[in-house]
Amino acid sequence: MMIEEDLAEAMEAHVADVQAPPDLGRSVRRRHRSRVARFRVAGAALATAALAVTVPVTLNSSEPAVTANPASGSDRVVVQASVTVPDVTGKTAAEAERTLRDAGLDIDYSPLKRREGFDGYLVRKQEPAAGREVAPGTRATLFVESPATSPQDLGDLGDGREFGGIRLSYLPDGFRWGKLSSKDQFGVHSYSTSFEKPSDDQRMHYSVEVIVYEGEAVKKIYADFPRKGAEIVDVNGNEARLANLSEAGEVVPFFTDKSTLTMAWKLRDDLAVKLRVSPAYEMSIGNRVHGELKKIARGIRAIS
Amino acid sequence: MTDDEEAAFDEFLAARSTSLLRTAILVCGATRHDAEDLVQHALEKVYRHWPRIRGDNPEAYARKVVINAAISRARRRRIVQEITFARPPETAADSPDLDLRDTLMQELRRLPPRMRAVLVLRYWEDQSEESTAALLGCSVGTVKSQAARGLARIRENLNLAKEVIG
To answer: Hey, which residues does A190 pair with through a beta bridge?
Structure first.
């Protein structure tokens, strides 16, 4: 069979049982009323619970707490029974797995488990979130990162302001280093990390990403960044491009959906920097975003 | 919004939200929970502009918002792997193609988000190259090349997996 057909079948099977929750309309309206303060849907745990038929063998009472389990000993999902989801973010996959087992979440490995070195991957995010009350046997998902994209890439950067041969002297109030960093993701040699502004929106994983291009990699800085249409900005005597870029690397109007506010310039022939702003941050500060971006840019100096 | 507009929005949701949710799950390569959140967010946008767009193909608008949000989220998450615990019983059925499906879905998730979106739109939604290009805001040429490269990459990794296992 052609791979297209296999793939189509696999996709079909993957989502065949997915149905939009019946309270979607209500959720959308509620979200509309509180657009800025986004909330996390509470229905998801129930939706996943409905999928899990068997209950795990043990409900370990040591940690975390089993909050209510009037139907102990049952081998079916009992809606009243619930367990508190433990926090496994930051743990290795192996540790997370043990903790989740203890919590009463049954485990069935995906083929990924067989990958070498997998146990050492770090959990970046978990679902359902820690602290949630869910039915035993609820499908829990971990998002793990291979060590290649884990913080060890550039090591502990402290406040994150100094890396890849540059230093950031200005960051907007409340920004802190996002701890994730990568090396050579944008060509050899390139370094990147991000800063985030903690907010009530847990999904805002970064606010501003900083990418440093060094040596040969500098040639790539404008690969997906046309000059035409971009605002040309002076950054300490160097010409910088500032534009909203679409996925396809085209300049699109500011605040367009599906685009990323980006600024790039060369500090030297062998050193360049690109800044990318997350749409969530852009939306949270509105028109002030351009001013802040330029201030960050002008505060960046080469230190090597 | 008027009561009439509210009712029309509810009708739209009833007819299209499951399909949008499925697309979001496939394109962002994440869990249903993530996808639901994303679809809600996208539909809030649709709701915000509903009086203006309801007469002008709101589905295309919603689909565009969902797809682009899914791509953005997948891009920004920087999550390279996903493990699912307690796979639901449906997928554990004794189908001979189960392993292949699992592997294909994993390979699909490993593709860059935009490439994945092209494959989802072309082969799962069965959209034409032209509509795919319109939905993604790119050229037909890009759709063609992304689809070809995506399939090639999956095929290559499948062969590699066979060698390792076999």
So the answer is: A213
Considering only residues 207 to 266 of chain A, which have any Cβ-Cβ distance to chain B shorter than 8 Å?
Answer: 246-248, 257-258
pLDDT band (50, 70, 90) for residue A294: very high
Q: What is the structure's pLDDT at B89?
A: 37
Quick check: A9 contacting B, CB < 8 Å? yes
Backbone angles phi, psi at A17, to 5 degrees: -95, 5
- Cβ of A29 under 8 Å from any chain B Cβ? yes
Percent of chain A exceeding pLDDT 70 equals 71
In percent, the amount of chain A with pLDDT more than 90 equals: 20
Asked if A130 has any chain B CB less than 8 Å from its own CB, the reply is: no
Strand-strand pairing, A122-127 and A141-145:
antiparallel
Is residue A273 very low, low, confident or very high in pLDDT (cuts 50, 70, 90)?
A: very high
Chain CA centroid to CA A281, Å: 14
- Give which of A5, A6, A40, A114 to mutate to test B binding, by max B Cβ within 10 Å: A6
Question: What CA–CA distance (Å, rounded) separates A151 from A180?
Answer: 5
Interface predicted TM-score (ipTM): 0.83
Q: Tell me whether residues B65 and A257 touch, CB distance under 8 A.
A: yes
Query: In this structure, how many other beta carbons lie within 10 angstroms of the beta carbon of residue A105?
Result: 24
Which residue among A53, A100, A278 sits closest to B89, beta carbon to beta carbon? A53
B105/B99 Cα distance (integer angstroms): 10
Q: Which of B10, B86, B151 sits opposite A105 (nearest CB)?
A: B86
**Predicted confidence band at B122 (pLDDT cuts at 50, 70, 90)?**
very high
Q: Where are the alpha helices (DSSP H) in chain A?
A: 3-15, 24-33, 43-51, 93-102, 279-285, 288-298
Cα separation, A201 vs A203, in Å, equals: 5
| Cα B137 to Cα A248: distance, rounded to the nearest angstrom | 8
**What's the rounded Cα separation, in Å, for the pair A233 and A230?**
9
Q: How many Å apart are CA A96 and CA A99, to the nearest integer?
A: 5
Phi and psi angles of residue A20, each rounded to the nearest 5 degrees, phi first: -65, 140
Closest C-alpha among B114, B100, B94, B104 to residue B27: B114
Interface test mutation site (partner B, options A4, A14, A55, max chain B beta carbons within 10 A): A14
3-state secondary structure of B31: coil
CA distance B160 to chain A (A): 14
